[in-house]
């Protein structure tokens, strides 16, 4: 994923799209491998996009497709692909109809939102009409979270889905320091699963959530039982 | 910045450190230029870190310095620099004292948290003692937000501060489509400032926050007045 916008790097806006995309991809059985955040710099966007679209099967972008002068994603994506930018006829038709129906002026600024690289396919926007677009393996979406989410929902069923990764979360009342050694042994003994441990700190003491992930149900069960037995063992030793 | 952790890419954990670092850097007058998020893959972490530390003056990492088997950041950072990993004597002393004072066992897992690349300087952790560390221009910090924030607070005064970027936020009741054209003219006429416009959508209508940024107070004033005059002009035309 490539999240675009000076406001994300200045801290003015806290990104909400990365975590959402991550959740949706996990449910769809698609592994999110890398995220980059860059500012409103056309060369940086184009260079980063070229790196990501060659490295990965799918790339999703957020941000920079609105009507103002700092919305430069369409131009940067076109530059990355070496394509000209056009006013997309279908986008033009949708926005003309939308503003006419609301008796709003279809200003040159709003018209900017119809610009896509030549040959792009549109991504529907059920929230505010102005579409995103797809070029090859790159999906270009809005930065406003409600619109990003609507666009992603409209396309996720068309993606090549993998076998969903299943996960089992096991709450653990002990800190990572208490479970690190035995958990490491369990991880070594169960190569078919990935075991993560996520520390929580409530201000006075640590607890942990242990998450086991696998595409194989049996491997997941075996590892989960080993973790539960380990936790029961620690508990028993403490009470003894 | 480099944020590390499978849990960020699966959506299980929503990152809170990127936005915090961005805010702190902006206040310190340091421009955050790029963020990457990668999983718990030692080669990916090392390669990404080598790219970032050569491209930028400062690099901050979050995540992967706890006591469990999936905490591999110290090893990956050492690999990136071609350094051996040692048990840092001062970190060892701090953690031994900490666990002794609490009558807690200093397990091999907890001892993992003393591992740093050789020659690293420690970053204090006032929340839970186990330190972060610095190697050259790379600052390695925890992923737990309260600990990340404490570590960043302990080092930010030592960073080479730039002239802080000042900003002026101007709320705007109109959508970007209404202001895009005149705002674009103002941006062109005021090259000493960066003007961002951030759409908000409340479910029925768009409004916008216009943010002007500059290191030059006079340029900021001039551009802010131009934006306010533009908004007053739109308002007057609507009422006419």
Kindly describe this structure.
The structure is a homodimer of 240-residue chains. With 240 residues, chain A is of the alpha/beta class. Chain A folds into two domains: 2-158, MoaB/Mog-like domain (Molybdenum Cofactor Biosythetic Enzyme, Chain A); 166-239, Ribosomal protein S10 (Alpha-Beta Plaits, 2-Layer Sandwich), CATH 3.30.70. Chain A has helices at 6-10, 17-28, 42-55, 73-81, 89-101, 108-111, 145-155, 176-189, 217-239; strands at residues 2-4, 34-38, 59-62, 85-87, 115-117, 121-123, 132-135, 138-141, 166-172, 194-201, 206-214. In chain A, the strands form three sheets. The first copy, chain A, has a six-stranded mixed beta sheet with strand order 2-1-3-8-7-6. In chain A, strands 9-11-10 form a three-stranded antiparallel beta sheet, with helices on one face. In chain A, strand 6 (121-123) and strand 7 (132-135) form a beta hairpin. In chain A, helix 2 runs parallel beside helix 7 (145-155) and helix 8 runs antiparallel to helix 9 (217-239). The radius of gyration of chain A is 23 Å and the shape is elongated. Chains A and B meet through helix 1, helix 2, strand 2, helix 6 and helix 8 of A and helix 1, helix 2, strand 2, helix 6 and helix 8 of B. Strand 2 of chain A pairs antiparallel with strand 2 of chain B. Chains A, B: InterPro entries: CinA, FLAD1_M, MoaB/Mog-like_dom_sf, MoaB/Mog_dom. Chains A, B: Residues 1-162 form the MoaB/Mog domain. Chains A, B: It comes from Jiella endophytica. Chains A, B: This is Competence/damage-inducible protein A.
